[in-house]
Known about the structure:
Elements: E1 2-3, H1 4-14, H2 16-37, H3 43-59, H4 63-77, H5 86-105, E2 114-115
Antiparallel strand pairs: 1-2
Helix pairs in contact: 1-2, 2-3, 3-4, 4-5
Amino acid sequence: MLDWNRISELQEEIGPDAFHEVVALFLEEVDASLARLGRLTEPREVEGELHFIKGCALNFGFRGLADLTARGEMAARAGDLSGISVATVADAYGLSKREFLAALSDPTVPRTGAVA
């Protein structure tokens, strides 16, 4: 789910010219973070990586991804990695990323409120 209100706020905060650069950096950083996450086995490290992804997701309006990583972060903080699936996190990110990029490139897609 995308929060287009947050995305619009971010566009206004940084301006339309810088927005595309910031989007590229965001996507690059989350891609790298997901790759690191797949190699981690220590709960504290997993917690930290999920926290990073959650913060990025919240900043860019990737609400579903933020909610998923928040739950994983809490589980990792408790030392329980059994319910954390990197594939599930990657799938949620991939879905949000596709919807986000498609909507940005198609001016006919409504960009208000939260979009599932």
